[in-house]
Amino acid sequence: MSEGIKFRILQKAIELFNERGFESVSMRDIAEELNISPGNLTYHFRKKTDILNGIISLLMEEHNKMNYKPEITLTEFDSILVQVEEHQKRYSFYYKNIIELKNKYPEIAQLQKDYKLEFIAIITKTFCYLEQNGWVKPEKRERLYEDLSVAILAIAAFGNQIDLNRDMREVIWSMIYPVLTEEGIKEYQTLIRRLDTSD
């Protein structure tokens, strides 16, 4: 029962933080939305930062379930981008305030650092795999694909903050397109046609 209430609190907090922003939502707001007393809320989460930590745990749990691996096709890579987009929508308050939260909470800063290193390593290995299978061109200079992985991370992590009203996936594909081989372009075009017919 207690775990069920905790989960409801976290889900309602995510909803309110996404709607109003993390700083604009009080513990009282969360309690009122759930029709529970502030005392009942603080029994489960003493402070708003405890709720934030609970949400970060959920966020990381979902991230780990995505089970990224570098040995993938371009179509599978696109599926990962879709998952990342959905994940960001679900936790939009976090991604819109990624720098502020990092600066304010050291434990979040460490999580972000670990995630950043893991993401860059996996995407770089993915490019190596795509190169070995003839979908992307050999690197024209050392660490080109590592740098491209850093750029993809920057767009994935900070795209919400820039608010350019652009589709993150399209921007990332625009960056990857110049390094695709003829075989890679064929697979990309097949992917685009499939997406167009499914809309």
From TrEMBL:
This is Transcriptional regulator, TetR family. SUPFAM superfamilies: Homeodomain-like. The keyword Lyase does not apply. Keywords: DNA-binding, Transcription, Transcription regulation. PROSITE patterns: HTH_TETR_1, HTH_TETR_2. One of its GO terms (molecular function) is transcription cis-regulatory region binding. It holds the Pfam family TetR. It comes from the Bacteria. Residues 3-63 form the HTH tetR-type domain. InterPro entries: DNA-bd_HTH_TetR-type_CS, Homeodomain-like_sf, HTH-type_TetR-like_transc_reg, HTH_TetR, TetR. Residues 26-45 bind DNA.
